[in-house]
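Exercise: predict the fold of this chain.
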Amino acid sequence: MSDILRKRSKALSYWLRHAPEKGGIVLDAEGWAEVSSALRALAENRLETDVALLARVVEENDKKRFELSPDRLRIRAWQGHSIAVEGAWERTDPPEALYHGTVEKFMESIEAEGLTKRNRHHVHLSLDLETASKVGQRRGKPVILQVDTTAMVADGFKFYLSANGVWLVDAVPTRFFKRL
C-alpha cells in the first residue's frame, strides 16, 4: 500500500473504529458513516481525498478493514471497534484450530487472564499461522498461540467470522490455547 493510501487508512481506522468524534464523523448503530463526512474529515486533516481514492483505500487495504456500501455513499470498518457498534458478523463454527499473534511483553497477562477483548468488541483470531505471525510482528518478534476451537465450541463459545476473514470470539480462557 502506498504512503498516500496508508495515511488515509490510518486516519479512517482511528475514526471509524475508535473516535468518530475526533473526525467530526457520526456512525450509525452498525458503524456506517456518510462518505461525505469521511471525505470532509480527511480534507480537514490535510488528506484531501475523492471517492475514487477512497475506494482505492478500501480495496487496497492489506487487512481489508473497510467496506463501502454498494452505492458508495457510506463506509464502515469491519471489526476492531472500541466503541459500541452492532456489527454484521456472521456466526459460524470455526475450523478445529485458530491462531492468535501477539508479542512476549503481553504473555504474562495472557497466561494469567487468557485472551480478553479488553476495550474491543472481540478477540481477533487468524485462520493460519502466517496471518497470526504478521499480526504479532507489528509490535516485535511474534508469539503465536494455537486456539483449540473444537473444545471451545463444545463449551458453548460462539464464534463469528467477519467479511474480511477475521475470526471473532468474546474471550479465550487459558485452558483453550497453547504457545507454539
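Check your answer against the key: The first strand starts at residue 33 and ends at 34.
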